Amino acid sequence: MASIGIFYGSSSGVTRSVAEQLETLFEEVELIDMEEDYDDADQMLEFDVLLLGSSTWGQGDPQRDWVDALYDIENEAPDFSGKKIALFGAGDQDTHGEEFVSALGKMHEVFGNLGAEFVGFWSTEGYKYEHSLAEKEGQFCGLAIDDVNQEDLTSQRVQTWATQLKSELSLA
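Predicted structure:
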């Protein structure tokens, strides 16, 4: 069975909540809070599958606990070839629709440049936003959560995405 690391940064608790829900839906999972438990990229390389979560802040930036880690990862350029990565994140499509979940797009670029293979693309259907760096070929490059405006959809979206990932990763 594949080992799975869930790495997340959360300021308001939404991304943490999604990470914790995902932890209950997968086997052999380790939950890593980027603020408290993250050491370096070598820690990520210990896992076969990475679920990476971040909310979006400012001009589409990843949550603050990711900033130094992503800088170091870009500069050190570890080889993520053979790693499967699925992204998830929180945003507010009404108030911040000009950069809705754009942090996922930035993370996609960083890890993609280092050889990672991405799974878990998610439909943009049901969302209303102006722009998102996370949109790739008509889909989000990961699970988009809007717990501000669509809180009633969050739990089902997480469960549906976990089922999708299990199928894509042949874990079902």
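Summary: Helices lie at 14-25, 41-45, 64-76, 102-112, 151-168.
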